[in-house]
Amino acid sequence: MFFSLTDHFLIRASAALEKLKLLCGEEKKCSNPSNLLELYTQAILDMTYFEENKLVDEDFPEDSSQKVKELITFLSEPEILVKENNMYPKHCDLLGDELLECLSWRRGALLYMYCHSLTKRREWLTRKSGLLKEYLVDGISYLLQMLNYRCPTQLDEGVSFQDLDTAKLLSEGIFSDIHLLAMMYSGEMCYWGLKHCADQQPENQGMDAGVSGASCTTHREPLDFREVGEKILKKYVSVCEGPLKEQEWNTTNAKQILNFFQHRSNS
């Protein structure tokens, strides 16, 4: 019998939930809150990944907004659980930086993919550009949040590195390929925002409104698409053509977007 990749994630989620059920049945003193939350979070990550893949494979059907909202809500639950129960002063003390990064990345990447699909629908854009702006602001916020959980490594005499390029990456707060993708995704979303809805106000209508979860404010702060996008894409290009030059990361799209930002600032 052959299983698809998505089947694998459902099986893994089921196993995590079974283990969680067993641990919850044990005496309280034997249960570590951190372990329980980690299992719960992993199950959510796996189950939502399965659902996300279905949406991506179908290129986000017209009625996807409610499903996207539900997935964002599910991916926000671990942080909400910690916050509502006052389990720890800081989320990272219980969830850990890597899980927090993963939760923010998954929400931001989902909104990136959804917005990418929406920008190809001209008729929808003419009617709903304000709603697109709402999704973009939330998505960018999640991705920037993901990039800011861990502080850049300070390069000083007390820290020794054999690889200077690695040291430069860590000093820029780039700890993995996903961090680079988050930078590029953020820049692209800023480009879409400036191109399609620079003059629009975010909508707040019925089922479509409010995809944000625990980590994005209910009342959105104004976001300067050009300023944010320009800053993060300049950093992306600098890193890709500097420490990561040998890995041949593509910077063509990033440079084209930067040119677009430059023309908009001069107009």
Verbal overview:
This protein is an all-alpha fold. The protein has one domain. 67% of the residues lie in helices and 0% in strands. The chain is built from ten helices and no strands. The chain has helices at residues 5-24, 33-57, 65-84, 91-95, 97-118, 122-148, 164-171, 177-197, 225-240, 252-266. Helix 5 (97-118) runs antiparallel to helix 6 (122-148) and helix 8 packs antiparallel against helix 9 (225-240). It comes from Myotis brandtii (Brandt's bat). This is CE051 protein. InterPro entries: RIMC1.
Blueprint (SSEs and pairs):
Layout: H1 5-24, H2 33-57, H3 65-84, H4 91-95, H5 97-118, H6 122-148, H7 164-171, H8 177-197, H9 225-240, H10 252-266
Question: What's the oligomerization state?
Answer: single chain
**Topology as a string of helices (H) and strands (E):** HHHHHHHHHH
For the residues shown, what is the average pLDDT?
Answer: 82
Give the count of structural domains: 1
**Morphology call:** globular
**Parts with pLDDT < 50 across at least 5 consecutive residues:** 204-210
Give the end-to-end Cα distance, rounded to a whole number of Å.
61 Å
Biggest sheet overview:
none
Gyration radius, to the nearest Å?
Answer: 20 Å
**Helix/strand structural class:** mainly alpha
